[in-house]
Write a structure and sequence with these properties.
Length: about 120
Amino acid sequence: MLAALKRQITEPVRQPKPILEPRRKPRTKSFSIVWLYAPPQTEPQHQAETLLREIQTHCEHAIGSYVPASDLERYYGELAKERGWEPRSWHVIGRELGKLTQRVGKRRDGRRFNAYKIPRVCA
């Protein structure tokens, strides 16, 4: 018993760690940047824009409707061959086309597919 008491006396008493307050990040003011010059248009952006214009001028019945991506991919292949472009992957062109128009995912017969809405021609 005496040994246990001696051990308690000689062991240092552990102090609880102080609770630190979390550091707060300095608040930054929001600001907006306005570019005076538009960034140069990439080739996929140009091809997607041209594809959309071609459909708007040659397929008036499609304006205001959703067109399946498979039809647009086929039309893009024909357009690229006609214009002498090196055909890009449809995923690249479809991504850029989705930025220009509305893209929706649809299901038919249990299969998923994307469709793009063809907007009216802007004057």
